[in-house]
Structure prediction request, 77 residues.
Amino acid sequence: MQIQKPNRDPLSESDRQALQQLRQQIEQTIARGSISRKEHTAILAQMYADGIVTDRECELFRLMQEKIWCGDLHIEA
Prediction:
């Protein structure tokens, strides 16, 4: 897995769209207050789909993880 620094290369249009979709999915999950293991796996799959995980994607995922750790986002059984 590559980790790409956002300041090195500008994002392509398809990368920007993928990032926006990921952001929306994570924001909706946080707003709902719960996440299933299936949704968690789907978010990870979306991040790894192109084989490159950008800093921006990592930041979004960390935000979601912090919400889980703080108890603001619950994992469904």
Notes: The chain has a mean pLDDT of 89. The CA atoms of residues 31 and 73 lie 9 Å apart. The longest strand covers residues 2-4.
